[in-house]
Amino acid sequence: MRILLLGEYSNVHWTLAEGLRSLGHEVCVVSNGDFWKDYKRDISLVRKYSKTGGMLYLIKTWLLLPKFRNYDIVQIINPMFLELKAERIFPIYRYLKKHNKRVFMGAFGMDAFWIEACTRKPYIFRYSDFNIGDKEVLNSYTAEQKADWQNTPKERLNKEIANDCDGIIAGMYEYYAAYKNGYEGKLAYIPLPIPRAGEKACRLYTPDRKIRFFIGIQKSRSIYKGTDIMLKALERIHEDYPDECEIMKAENVPFEQYSQMIENCDVLLDQLYGYSPGMNALLAMSKGKIVAGGAEEECYEILGEKNLRPMVNVTPSEESVYKELERLILEKERIPQMQAESIEFISKHHDPAKVAKEYLNFWCR
Asked: Is the pTM of the predicted complex or chain greater than 0.90?
């Protein structure tokens, strides 16, 4: 089949493309590389933020549209799959729907349905970016996202595409739950595809050295990801156990550099407010690292996983993160086994070819 993947989040589409190509399919990935992360793509569509940048980007997009015709499958990463205002994306989506056989939407991150699920009472999540228990989280980030996605053209675009597209694929439990109530008949949960790590990348921990804790910081998304709280807990751990651990930090580094840094750590801190691990956490697990972050039972249940529990689940508080990291230090003999289970978990559930087959089954049902 001919498959077009539009947009990128954390290397999902490029990795999926590699899985599909291994099965003999023709795939084209069009994206901006997910901004500074600079992931691989076949056609680069990057907007320059200048006085003329928006118009030049729009012109380039329209000139490319004839190349985006006659595909068996088109998948957009998000309703906002281009760096344009929602009003300008409406006609482009309709063009794609008209000139291709089937069009699918990804549920991989921030959108109107996710915000509605997190803000509608009674809350369906015990915690999220927008609520902790029955308490609403109020900060500049949540206010900005609500203003951006609620009662706006973005929300209308999201709902039009959700109603009109041929199917919706969620890559994490949270996003599946956000769409399940209204779209279960056209919704699928499919695990995120993770490339296999080479043996050199899998440097397992030996108890004769310090535990290396790694945290990646995106300054613009620190509140959203919870890295501000995680970093405070990590710094406290280092103060209390300076001879047992060390901290590795990455701030806004390209994907290739980030991936190399992961290879030298033992434990990755990621996604404080999540129920399940995202791409960065899964990538670390493929390299035999332990992930401390979102790993609630729901993320294992949706996979049908009954035995493996390689992740360290933390809840959204500095004290929870501190206690779980302290436990790793005090019980560091557990670390090698947990690292081995991380590799097994990724191989079992997230192999790109396996994931690609699940996509094909859903696309062609």
From this structure: yes
Which class is domain 199-349? alpha beta
What are 30's two structure tokens?
């069009």
* Cα(278)–Cα(10) distance, integer angstroms: 9
Domain ranges of the chain: 2-193+352-363, 199-349
Cα–Cα distance measured from residue 97 to residue 4, given in angstroms and rounded to the nearest whole number: 12
Q: Give the H or E element holding residue 299.
A: helix 297-301
Answer whether 2-193+352-363 and 199-349 agree in fold.
yes
Q: Are strands 73-76 and 43-44 parallel, antiparallel or unpaired?
A: unpaired
> pLDDT tens track of the chain, all 365 residues?
999 999 999 999 999 999 999 999 999 999 999 998 899 999 999 999 998 999 999 999 999 999 999 999 999 999 999 999 999 999 999 999 999 999 999 999 999 999 999 999 899 999 999 999 999 998 888 999 999 999 999 999 999 999 999 999 999 999 999 999 989 999 999 999 999 876 666 778 888 899 999 998 876 554 557 888 999 999 999 999 999 999 999 887 777 788 888 888 999 999 899 999 999 899 999 999 999 999 999 999 999 999 999 999 999 999 999 999 999 999 999 999 999 999 999 999 999 999 999 999 999 99
Domain 2-193+352-363 has CATH 3.40.50.2000: yes
At residue 13's C-alpha, the angle toward residues 43 and 67, to 5°, is: 35
Burial label for 306, CB within 10 Å (0-12, 13-18, 19+), is exposed
Count of other CB atoms within 10 angstroms of residue 263: 17
- Output the CA–CA distances (angstroms, integers) from residue 129 to 221, 223, 281, in the order listed: 11, 9, 18
- Rounded to whole angstroms, how far apart are CA atoms 349 and 310? 13
CA 344 → CA 158, 269, 281, 304, distances in Å?
36, 20, 14, 15
Helices vs strands, H then E, count in the chain: 15, 14
